[in-house]
Amino acid sequence: MTTPHLKNSTTDAIAKVRELLGDRLSTAPAVREQHGKDQTWNEGAPPDAVAFVKNTGEVSAIVAICASHQVPVIPFGTGTSLEGHFSAPYGGISIDLSGMNHILEVNSEDLDCRVEAGVTRKTLNAALRDQGLFFPIDPGADASLGGMTATRASGTNAVRYGTMKDNVLGLTVVMPNGEVIRTGTRARKSSAGYDLTRLMVGSEGTLGVITEVQLKLHGIPESIAAGVCAFPSVEACCRTTIETIQMGIPVARIELVDAEHIKAINAYSKLSLPVQPTLFVEFHGTPDWTREQSERFGEIAASHGGGSFDWATKEEDRLKLWQARHDAFWATKNLLPGKSETLATDVCVPISRLAECVEQTRLDLEANKIYGPMIGHVGDGNFHVVLFCDTNDAGELKRVKEAYDRLINRALAMGGTCTGEHGIGSGKRAYLAREHGPALAYMQAIKRAFDPLNIMNPGKNAAI
Amino acid sequence: MTTPHLKNSTTDAIAKVRELLGDRLSTAPAVREQHGKDQTWNEGAPPDAVAFVKNTGEVSAIVAICASHQVPVIPFGTGTSLEGHFSAPYGGISIDLSGMNHILEVNSEDLDCRVEAGVTRKTLNAALRDQGLFFPIDPGADASLGGMTATRASGTNAVRYGTMKDNVLGLTVVMPNGEVIRTGTRARKSSAGYDLTRLMVGSEGTLGVITEVQLKLHGIPESIAAGVCAFPSVEACCRTTIETIQMGIPVARIELVDAEHIKAINAYSKLSLPVQPTLFVEFHGTPDWTREQSERFGEIAASHGGGSFDWATKEEDRLKLWQARHDAFWATKNLLPGKSETLATDVCVPISRLAECVEQTRLDLEANKIYGPMIGHVGDGNFHVVLFCDTNDAGELKRVKEAYDRLINRALAMGGTCTGEHGIGSGKRAYLAREHGPALAYMQAIKRAFDPLNIMNPGKNAAI
Question: Are residues B113 and B211 in the same domain?
């Protein structure tokens, strides 16, 4: 596969894109830096230029220019992804889609909408609220919906509402030769042809630039009940979760917060939660039904040694609760100002193996003197480890990297995946082959078929 | 793209497969006929031989032989698909997977299982019952789970539980060169690489032979409530459905049966349902929760002129109800013994357009003197039309074919799809380009990349 590195032609391509965009094409070092390095320890590399686009037509024209000059194209949403997705190791032009921020249509009867790729999830939800609708997928950041599609994002609501894979109905995509295609229809289901929509979801900009997204929406639940329950062990949290799901209780969120995180949250948010593994849960439905779900959950929790399960239906109380959960990352960061870097990683395993995976990881980190609190979207078997590291300490860096590698191998050995929701980017490419074996060659075959010049986000995911 | 038609090498390939399978390779005309023609008016063509396989290794060996001889491979499950999926217009070897009928594992804690592709949905459900689990996808026929995966099947439960797309976690696939790959993991979600699982779901045997399927399972609901409600119009049925879904009532099944079908059902099943458009509904949950869902639905139905909504929670009553619904096809067929053929087709539109689409279709059929009762998985916007036709009457055949074409164009014009669940096969190939436009070329690019010799089920879906 071609590796694009024709620096001379980059200058020509930039000149042509400037003709098209004028001031909206920037080569300022600060802009390029910001578009080439994420918040993690993954290595960054600035693109040669950043194009601030306004519509699909411009993206198409830019990609066509880049194709004719064999110059890399790197799509950019809000820059909140975590695996070096938008760095430019081979240079090229970053296409910043944040200016494509229009909600194109909302169809309340069909519970769907169409948005430009740069619309963020919070912007969409603010616009939907008056119609009693919401879009449930909630990665931590206020990411763009195009970026969330490209990285197959999920979050705390995925146990009930699924991930981006389940909530994207169709896409507008600029393909690597500049051609614009629409995938999917507005029908809820289809058996017509290969599922190009799902192929694009999670392709991380390596197969095309997503410019519009058709999404499923959901009605805002009439009643929401949320609560917190402390347990004697991670095992007890996991068993409670398994039984809750087996019983068919449609829990909307069920989050494991480990004792380390609780300690940090208490300090940061001035709370006095018991310093124990804790489940944060939420139920959606009618008032009677959320009450029944909460009560049934409370019984299951009690049978596994869970403390009293207090549940709140008032919005104010719920928000306070979830704020504490969302602050967990900053709370831990606050505890350790000396650590220069954090590596927030995630794996996902069958739920029956989750307690074992979390516990083995905890013991591994403890044995290697690594501070790595854990938070889990436990209903999906997905958990995050925030590895703190002083990267100036070569010994510590080595220990952290080795523990990270063992974590992923542990998840794979348990029938899991190297990433539940953060994606591959440049950071986890080494694990793709380990996870997929001979199937990886077929991903690469698709890449070659769609993008023979390898200009679309080279060096990421299955792209060489 | 190559069209395989090297008849001489077929003889060689058959000889080699016979060395491998002995008696389990058949060239008997009756066996070949049965493996080349479905129950519809789609043209059939027998394969040159039928291989009754026992395991993935045999499939791999056969596909490798076929690849080296450029001989077509046509996967075969139960032969219940409806769009000429398994005919052999270019000859070749049909791989009958019905002997791969083992349930390999059931993981009740993870709510998943792994089955060989020949296991049928009813066999799986019979085996799961004792564990309190079930697999919800229910196309009319007792199809094989491999076939259901390959055609992206759904059915009456899809409004609540999704389609095969949503319920397949991973696959074992023999690729067109004979290589065996595994897609997906046992994790509930993943962001690792391109979604080959979803690419294979719905590929109709054109990208590889599915030999094992990892499926999501669900707990059998504690309580099931079902009922029937007659309405003054199809419009009222659709409005009731839209509001039910907007209200967040997680209806498990909501089926529209038109007045024509009710007439036939009454005669066939000796019932006396009002001859009006009718909704058959079902709710799953706890006893309190199904009661609440039923009551809320009853209120919505009443506001749209729905008759009294009687609901049954006793299994016997429910089964009787659904038996009548499932008998609808035979009931109508019984009414018109003179018609030599029926064309059961389906389209799917945004739910807001469903009433209009059904009504326009009814008027069109009426104007053209075509008997075509309709049944809809109305929660998904998906409906079936059973077109009756005396194919010996050239004028009638022409009228039916033209009405069929208008039906599909109507669905596409409304933002829908040419098939919600039956698939493309050979029967709907003409509509793929109409639905997907320039996106079709990317499906064909995948086909060429995976199967450059075009041996996998040629003439179906996106395969030339």
Answer: yes
Q: Is residue A157 part of a domain?
A: yes
Residue B285's CATH number: 3.30.70.3450
Rounded Cα distance between B439 and B431, Å, is: 13
**Contact residues for B117 (Cβ-Cβ < 8 A; gap 6+):** B77, B97, B100, B144, B145, B146, B147, B149, B209, B210, B211, B212, B213
SS3 A18: helix
CATH number of the domain residue A108 falls in:
3.30.465.10
Cα A334 to Cα A260: distance, rounded to the nearest angstrom: 13
CA distance B195 to B205: 17
* Domain end marker among A218, A243, A277: A218
A315/A239 same-domain check: yes
d(CA A443, CA B181): 12
Residues A297-319: what's their mean pLDDT? 87
Asked whether residue B382 carries a pLDDT value surpassing 90, the answer given is: yes
Q: Which residue of B has its CA nearest to A159?
A: B188
CA distance A242 to B53: 37
From first CA to last CA, the distance across chain A in angstroms is: 7
B403: in domain: yes
Same domain, B259 and B287: yes
pLDDT in tens, B426-440: 999 999 999 999 999
pLDDT-based confidence at residue A337 (cuts at 50, 70, 90): low
Average pLDDT over residues A183-199: 97
Chain B CB contacts of A193 under 8 Å are 202, 424, 432, 435-436, 440, 443, 461-462
Q: Searching chain A, which residue's CA lies closest to the CA of residue B177?
A: A442
- The domain boundary, picked from B219, B252, B276, lies at B219
Is residue A435 in some structural domain? no
Measured between CB atoms, which of B193, B221, B382 is closest to A436?
B193
CA-nearest residue to A439 within chain B is: B181
- Please tell me whether residues B197 and B227 are part of one structural domain: no
Which of A85, A169, A194 would best serve as a mutation to test chain B binding (most B beta carbons within 10 A)?
A194
Average pLDDT, chain B: 94
User: Which among B198, B417, B439 is the nearest to A198, CB-wise?
Assistant: B198
Q: Provide the shortest C-alpha distance from residue A150 to chain B (in Å).
A: 10
In a domain, A458, yes or no: no
Of A107, A191, A445, the CB nearest to B152: A191
- Domain residues for the domain of B187 are 103-219
Q: Kindly determine whether residue A192 and residue B218, on different chains, have CB atoms separated by under 8 Å.
A: no
B311-356 confidence digits (pLDDT tens): 777 888 888 888 888 888 778 877 776 666 778 899 999 999 999 9
In a shared domain, residues A366 and A402: yes
Q: What is the ipTM of this complex?
A: 0.96
A246 and A316 part of one domain: yes
Contacts (Cβ under 8 Å, ≥6 apart) of A450: A175, A176, A207, A208, A456, B442, B445
- Are the beta carbons of B191 and A419 separated by less than 8 Å? yes
Q: Cα distance from B380 to chain A (closest Cα, Å)?
A: 6
pLDDT in tens, B197-219: 999 999 999 999 999 999 999 99
| Domain shared by B344 and B407, yes or no | yes
Q: Structurally, how many domains does chain B consist of?
A: 3
Q: With an 8 Å Cβ cutoff, are B416 and A186 in contact? A: yes
Q: How confident is the model at residue B126 (pLDDT cuts 50, 70, 90)?
A: very high
Distance CA B270, CA B375 (A): 19
Residue B162: closest C-alpha in chain A: A189
Q: Are A374 and A384 in contact (CB under 8 A)?
A: yes
Q: What is the CATH number of the domain that holds A347?
A: 3.30.70.2740
Within 8 A by CB and 6+ apart from A255, the residues are A156, A279, A280, A281, A325, A375, A376, A377, A378
pLDDT confidence bin for A324, thresholds 50/70/90: confident
- Pair A288, A355 in one domain: no
